[in-house]
Amino acid sequence: MSENNDAKHIIILGGGFAGLWAAKELSKHDEYKVTVIDRNNYHLFQPLLYQVASAGLEPEQITYPLRGTFRRMLNVEFRMAEVTGLDLNKRVLLSDVGSIPYDGLIIALGSVTSYFGVPGADEFAFSLKSAEEAIDIRNHILSCFEYAQHETDPAIREQLLTFVIVGGGPTGTEYAGALSELANTSLRRDFRGLEKDTVKIMLIEGEDGPLNGYPEKLRGYAKKRLKKLGVHGYYNQHVVQVEADKVTLKSGEVIPTRTVLWTAGVRGNKVAEKMGVPLGRAYRIITNPNLQLTDHPEVFVAGDMALPMDGDRILVAPTIAPNAIQQGILVAKNLINHFAGKELTSFSYHDKGSLATIGRSSAVVHLGKLNITGFFAWITWLIIHILYLIGFRNRVIVLINWAAEYICFERGVRLILPKAKDTIPHGKADEYEASSTEGSALNNRSVKEK
């Protein structure tokens, strides 16, 4: 890090898309010292996280060391720490490594899963927001197949091979398609006697179909494509309770299952509740149109945590990567202008389009007035994701993996790591107690570790 004792110190909280692009923008200005703080020492490419959870990629293929990213940014330093609070008046960040003073602050800690207060969801449902959670899901899915292969009780076997995905947005839709392909290709060959109708994949969505907010043409295509993949769509439905071995819908229908993946919503990072900042809808931090705290103009917010408001009107700011990147660049520029006494720029989201893949050779792409479906949409999806992926090595490896999977119809990461024995769901304790370590993993455990 370049030495400049008179330089103002800017802290960036979070190494996600918003934090990373804010750091890149600030690295152009040597008159500032920049410290990026994150609990992890890597940037995670969340749009491909579902592929880790469906045995398509390894987590290291969609992550990149933050120190490697900042290596040539001489005024940018990385520090691994856990944020515990914030003293806005003294301009001091509180963390597990001590108090860190700042002149300017950018909060870009991202979001966590919102369960909307549904009973049992936080305890029994999986979230897909981190590399660790993706590995837990992959372990759990594969373990369910392992135990179901030799399960003699039809009811328990049905629970093990029924997978419920709550939320029909891009993540839920993409994971439903990927899981269906995993079950119907690699796992069908791995597990003898696994019939097509044995595995049930349910997609539960409160709207009348998947990908709410996309053009109707694309939504209709996604709905048909999911049906063709064998995904059972439960549309205009809401989950009212999640239990260890079943999910209850608002209609009263009960789905027996040991696996619930919750992708239905997000909320601001829980750290924000310890910062003394104004919170609005979904616990996101309220800012003015410049993405700035009104009472503390040296503090800016970007990414999923930001709730920019113009009076009583919420400005458009979807919780997706392009929005985080645009906000990260803007807050860096606005912070520089704030120190220089110049006019700040209001945030205006530039919609670069939406896209989602739905299984092999199939995707939907919405770019302006252009709506594409099928193979060419899938190629577009591939190219865009490769370009946004951080690190040349990661791009090459992911591209090779995708090519091998496409040619061989084979998911190559069908590995249950040691932790999997702790994440297998609760079976009947009295039936499994005496049967080796595999059986003990089923004893009265929740679907996920707390």
Overview of the structural elements:
With about 450 residues, this protein is of the alpha/beta class. Strands 5-2-1-9-22-21 form a 6-stranded mixed β-sheet, with helices on one face. The protein has a 5-stranded parallel β-sheet with strand order 11-18-12-13-14. The chain starts with 7 loop residues before the first strand and ends in a 10-residue tail after the last helix. Residues about 420-450 have low confidence and may be disordered. Helix 1 (about 15-25) runs parallel beside helix 10 (about 320-340) and helix 5 (about 130-150) packs antiparallel against helix 6 (about 155-160). Helices cover about 30% and strands about 25% of the residues.
Describe the SSE topology.
Layout: E1 8-13, H1 17-26, E2 32-38, E3 42-44, H2 49-53, E4 63-65, H3 66-69, E5 76-80, E6 83-87, E7 92-95, E8 98-101, E9 104-107, E10 111-113, H4 121-124, E11 126-127, H5 131-149, H6 154-160, E12 162-166, H7 170-184, H8 186-190, E13 200-205, H9 216-228, E14 231-235, E15 239-242, E16 246-249, E17 254-256, E18 259-262, E19 266-268, E20 285-287, E21 292-293, E22 296-301, E23 306-310, E24 313-314, H10 321-340, E25 354-357, E26 363-367, E27 370-373, H11 375-388, H12 392-408, H13 420-423, H14 429-432, H15 436-440
Parallel strand pairs: 1-2, 1-9, 2-5, 9-22, 11-18, 12-13, 12-18, 13-14, 20-23
Antiparallel strand pairs: 3-4, 6-7, 7-8, 10-19, 15-16, 16-17, 21-22, 23-24, 25-26, 26-27
